[in-house]
Amino acid sequence: MSRQRATIAGAGLAVVVVVVLAVVLLGGASAPADRADALVPADARVYVHLSTDPDRDQDARVLELLQRFPAVTALRRRAESAVGAFDFKRDVRSWLGKEAAIAATERGTLLVLAVEKESTAQGVLTRVAGARPAGRHAGVVVRRFGPTAAAFTGGFLVIGPEALVKQSIDLEQGRGRSLSKDETYARAAELRPDDRSIDAWTDGSGAAFVLPLRLAEVVGGWPVSASVIPNDRGLRLSVRRFGGASPGADFDPKLIDSVPNAALAYVGVRSPRTLGSLLPDAGGDAAAGLKKGLAPLLEVLDGGSALSITPATPEPVVTLAARTSDPAAAREALAGLQGIIAGLLTGSEDLTGQVPTFEELDLGDGLDGFRLRLAGGGELVYVVTGRTVIVSNSSDGVRRAARPSESLRDTEDFGAAVDGVPGTAQALAFLDASKLLALGDEAGLDASPTYRAVRNDLRKVRALGAVVRRRGNDTTVELNFLIP
């Protein structure tokens, strides 16, 4: 018994991970039970809530979907191995109620589990804690094992640092301020869809702990709420950022019609400047010169843009189409960029001693543009047609964008993943995971450890669609994962 206590005490984070996976994987259209937030302090940085009701169809669907992903299975096995002889089907599912939650605070992590059978849970807790003496707080027994404490209060078992456990007891008895009383959190809770199975919340400061740096920067310190909703096509992730939305990012994503139906990836935003902010920073004189040269062009590309990648041989076709408020200024800015781009992509001169330059190109059907021939047979082509600027690494890419026939919008997967192109958005995106993996395999990316790490999980997702919209001062994101 002492060895088991020591193992659990030394793997607090692993316990949390396993319990989360256990309650999800061992889990009606009614809203899930949601009372755990009343036992969580208002200063929680991150809060995750799971519905563990075995009678809810949504929870069973989440179970069925998550079990398909190798990463979830591997994570659960590693965590169970870290904890030791603890059997979660026996020691948790046997008494667990209809909800479970985890809260991260500056003082530690708190686990809140609804209790359906307290006598069974008491027996498990006594076995884990062993004969170590228990204390009392406000009339409630507080058991200790290692650095962790646990107590039954208000129909829940709370586990975590002793100070947090005692605070949960106080909150249940009406002393102090809980997360459920936070004004922004309460508003987020009211907006959650009833058919959800998992919820998450951060006050904004917690984003840096759970998100990659670039995504944490997008959150920008604003509170964020997210819900996972299963459906017959896969999973939907509904996210809302409270505050910080700017009407200046709104655009009409009509350039989706310029994207070929065979595209494996598409991103639509108001200005290409937004896409640049997501890329790694580049340094050096050449990068500084390009940035300065691009400024006049980006200034007039403000009516919506569409970046797409389409499979082709010998290399994929990458095309950017962007609406301009001033076609003449766009042409002038592009002409000024020709020398800078030619120098960056081809060097100062070719084998004949000539400096490579853009040449005029007749693309047919009334399209006149410019082309820069690259070493190895590649090319960079651009055209300004009407109020649209099109840039591509292929003449065919320019033609398809300028004179579209069958668009990505018309495909079944895009329709299911995006679920309708809105009249106004702040971003629109689509990714065909199956085509992307095929392209990655052809390009030899299996030599990359990162690619190998995500490849098997990506195979479980057919496509992904995202719609970002402004709702007053808030920003909403709807992500649809098509899981066949």
Task: Walk me through what this model shows.
It is a single chain. The chain folds into two domains: 2-230, no CATH class; 248-402. The model is unreliable at 1-18 and 23-29 (pLDDT under 50). The chain has 484 residues and is of the alpha+beta class. The protein is built from 17 helices and 20 strands. β5 and β6 (148-153) form a beta hairpin. Helices cover 35% and strands 27% of the residues. The protein has a 20-stranded antiparallel sheet, sandwiched between helices. The chain is elongated.
Salient structural properties:
35% helix, 484 residues, 20-stranded antiparallel beta sheet, alpha+beta, elongated
Task: Summarize the helices and strands and which ones pair or pack.
Blueprint: H1 2-9, H2 12-25, E1 46-51, H3 57-66, H4 70-83, H5 88-91, E2 96-105, E3 108-115, H6 118-129, E4 135-137, E5 140-145, E6 148-153, E7 156-160, H7 162-172, H8 183-191, E8 198-202, H9 207-210, H10 213-219, E9 224-231, E10 234-241, E11 265-269, H11 272-277, H12 285-300, E12 305-310, E13 317-323, H13 327-346, E14 359-364, E15 367-373, E16 379-385, E17 388-392, H14 395-402, H15 412-418, E18 427-432, H16 433-442, H17 449-458, E19 463-471, E20 474-482
Antiparallel strand pairs: 1-2, 1-8, 2-3, 3-7, 4-5, 5-6, 6-7, 8-9, 9-10, 10-20, 11-12, 11-18, 12-13, 13-17, 14-15, 15-16, 16-17, 18-19, 19-20
User: Beta-sheet strand percentage?
Assistant: 25-35%
Radius of gyration, Cα only, in angstroms?
27 Å
Give the averaged pLDDT, no decimals: 84
- Label the overall shape: elongated
Number of discrete helical segments: 17
